[in-house]
Design brief:
It contains three helices and two strands, in the order H-E-E-H-H. It is an alpha+beta fold. It has one domain. Strands 1-2 form a two-stranded antiparallel sheet. Helix 1 runs antiparallel to helix 3 (60-73). The longest helix has 20 residues, at 3-22. The chain is globular, with a radius of gyration of 14 Å.
Length: 92
């Protein structure tokens, strides 16, 4: 797997599909800048409520996305999921 190949697939296929299927308000991708971390990719999905987030993580949409990701990349990409809630936001 090349970084360019992964980027193209995630940008053109997976991120838009995941945002729609999960019902996310926004979706974004990030790469780590710290060389000590190695090449770490992050995806962030924002939901209107914590309940909406919890619903998105259950059922067919997330199962389909996991299966689709695994069928494309197998175990070549390590994945974890974390949930967080915003407690404060400042506009600059």
């Amino acid at each position: 797997m090349s970084e360019d190949e992964f980027d193209a697939w995630y940008r053109e296929e997976h991120l838009p599909q995941a945002a729609v299927q999960l019902g996310a308000r926004t979706a974004s991708r990030l790469w780590s800048l710290d060389e000590a971390d190695g090449l770490v990719h992050y995806a962030r999905y924002d939901f209107d409520t914590n309940e909406h987030l919890e619903a998105a993580l259950q059922g067919e949409p997330i199962s389909f996305l996991i299966t689709h990701f695994t069928s494309r990349w197998g175990d070549t990409v390590a994945r974890t999921r974390s949930r967080a809630t915003a407690v404060e936001s400042l506009a600059g």
